Amino acid sequence: MLRFLPAPVLGAVMMSVLAVNTVFWATPLYLVALLKLIAPTPSLRDRASRLIAAIAQAWSTSSIWFADRCLTPSYQLRGVAALDRNGQYLVCCNHQSWNDILVLMKAFNGRAPFFKFFLKQQLIWVPVLGLAWWGLDYPFMKRYSAATLQKHPELRGRDLETTRAACERYRNLPVTILNFLEGTRFTKAKHDQQQSPYRHLLKPKAGGMALALTALGEQINSLLDVTIVYPDGARGFWDFMAGRVRRVVVEVRSLTIPHEFYTGSYEEDPVFRKRFQDWIAQLWADKDRRIAELLQENNAQLPAR
Q: Which of these, 107, 97, 116, lies nearest to 56 by C-alpha position?
């Protein structure tokens, strides 16, 4: 519809459309969040949470509708057909760009419950979205430096407590809990600084996922291992809005979670912690190889120049 526009103009139009659409849906979301805050019973709070999730899903659907008509990415969506919009899923995914959120919305829209994901505490101050995320019960995580933890050891484990409390709130609701295990977006500088053993990934952080499994229990339908690949290279959010992202591959694998990982103590049992970390490390090694295969497969399809 607007693909004929020059990239800078298209980007400005798309950013404006998404901003207006976000404010439009945030207004009823705030009203329901207020009702949820004063609801006297857990059942009423659950109903309010479901309505808030439905509003967020409507925002997602309308945002995708605009993007599909104005932008040009070619999507390959693999493994999404078997998802259940009333299910409970734990998702682990690689993370390269803010575009990953829009890409996941596209892949999961109407097929699975709306995402919950863990946010840095500073993001609660983002205009419009910060309060919306709070209303959606997104857990806000506060990061502490090594120096702060050394000075205040009582702060250790605060993020894990936040994870546990959030997952308890999700027990009776359809939910997709999204976890970017790397904890931050992939860049070459971060990769080199970490001395990551993976070619396309940063080192994974296993603690949050371990606690989510313990808190939610075996009612989780499955672990969804999601791999996002940009065959032409990952770009920033502005480039996506300007129509410069041409190809996106999203592959979803449904994995069975070993029973032992629902019941062990990641914090207190070092043997369990090592087994869980080894499992995540193997999952990440498989993902790293799969990214390389998807890149090779898609770039081999390009016509010779």
A: 116
Note the maximum CA span of the chain.
66
Give the C-alpha separation, 18 to 63, whole Å: 6
> What is d(CA 287, CA 285) in angstroms, rounded to the nearest whole number?
5
pLDDT for 2: 64
Q: Which two tokens stand for residue 67?
A: 């993007």
Using alpha carbons only, how large is the chain's radius of gyration in Å? 20
Instruction: Show the tokens assigned to 118.
Output: 């863990």
Q: What is the mean pLDDT of residues 65-92?
A: 90
User: Interior CA angle at 157 toward 213 and 42, to 5°?
Assistant: 55
> Region 170-187: what's the mean pLDDT?
86
Position 184 pLDDT exceeds 50: yes
Q: Is 97 exposed, middle or buried (0-12, 13-18, 19+ CB in 10 A)?
A: buried
How many CB atoms are closer than 10 A to CB 9?
A: 12
The CA distance from 67 to 157, in Å, is 40
Q: For residue 158, what pLDDT band results from cuts at 50, 70 and 90?
A: low
Q: Judge contact between 229 and 201, C-beta under 8 A.
A: no
CATH 3.40.1130 fits 73-300, yes or no: yes
**pTM of the entire predicted model:** 0.87
Helices (H), 110-257: 129-135, 146-151, 158-169, 188-194, 207-216, 237-241
